From TrEMBL:
<keyword id="KW-0808">Transferase</keyword>
<keyword id="KW-0677">Repeat</keyword>
<dbReference type="GO" id="GO:0004746">
    <property type="term" value="F:riboflavin synthase activity"/>
</dbReference>
<dbReference type="InterPro" id="IPR001783">
    <property type="entry name" value="Lumazine-bd"/>
</dbReference>
<feature type="repeat" description="Lumazine-binding">
    <location>
        <begin position="1"/>
        <end position="96"/>
    </location>
</feature>
<comment type="pathway">
    <text>Cofactor biosynthesis; riboflavin biosynthesis; riboflavin from 2-hydroxy-3-oxobutyl phosphate and 5-amino-6-(D-ribitylamino)uracil: step 2/2.</text>
</comment>
<dbReference type="InterPro" id="IPR023366">
    <property type="entry name" value="ATP_synth_asu-like_sf"/>
</dbReference>
<dbReference type="InterPro" id="IPR026017">
    <property type="entry name" value="Lumazine-bd_dom"/>
</dbReference>
<feature type="repeat" description="Lumazine-binding">
    <location>
        <begin position="97"/>
        <end position="193"/>
    </location>
</feature>
<keyword id="KW-0686">Riboflavin biosynthesis</keyword>
<comment type="function">
    <text>Catalyzes the dismutation of two molecules of 6,7-dimethyl-8-ribityllumazine, resulting in the formation of riboflavin and 5-amino-6-(D-ribitylamino)uracil.</text>
</comment>
<dbReference type="Pfam" id="PF00677">
    <property type="entry name" value="Lum_binding"/>
</dbReference>
<feature type="domain" description="Lumazine-binding">
    <location>
        <begin position="1"/>
        <end position="96"/>
    </location>
</feature>
<dbReference type="InterPro" id="IPR017938">
    <property type="entry name" value="Riboflavin_synthase-like_b-brl"/>
</dbReference>
<protein>
    <recommendedName>
        <fullName>Riboflavin synthase</fullName>
        <ecNumber>2.5.1.9</ecNumber>
    </recommendedName>
</protein>
<feature type="domain" description="Lumazine-binding">
    <location>
        <begin position="97"/>
        <end position="193"/>
    </location>
</feature>
Amino acid sequence: MFTGIIEEIGRVKNIKQSSQAVELTIHANKIMKDMHNGDSISVNGVCLTVTSFSNDEFHLDVMPETIKSTSLRELKNGSTVNLERAMSPQGRFGGHFVSGHVDGVGTVKNIKDAGNARYYEIKADAEIIKYTILKGSVAIDGTSLTVFVVSDSTFTISLIPHTRAETILSEKVVGDLVNIECDMLGKYIEHFVHSRFSNSQEENKTSITYDLLQKNGFA
């Protein structure tokens, strides 16, 4: 579990492709202090597992499906990435609940400055938009942000100078891909409501029989 508060910008040192997976080697400093094999690290919003590490770099295996369905497929040697360690129960919870399970990929459609803010309009599929609400939370490349505008096919987020300085989002240009994770609370609520509604319908269907209708004068 993550918070969406980026701890450090890392840099891809090496990408090794095999038939079974892609191994990433990432250079970092701050998050190396208490790293262990098996730790979960959010890389641009994707939860990955540390397989080995040294003083200033760590290695991760990425499955082909993850590469295919996220913006990690665009990484190359030298690419910068947002990094966050799994949240600590002793720390402050400054963002929102982020699982590191990306829901889809969006495209930066427009960038506009307004005062000290920078607005990013992101185009996304309908399956993403339906979970995106005004003033709700969304994780973009693992960064916890607030939604300011929602349309049928896009939503807009705003970055203050601090967020631009501490994440790779300041490097994004129109046409770039970003990983999107919707607020998990909304997804759980939808699942529970849909499941309850479906079960109620099924119960109603099975409880009305021909004998019941005949007994009550309807057949």
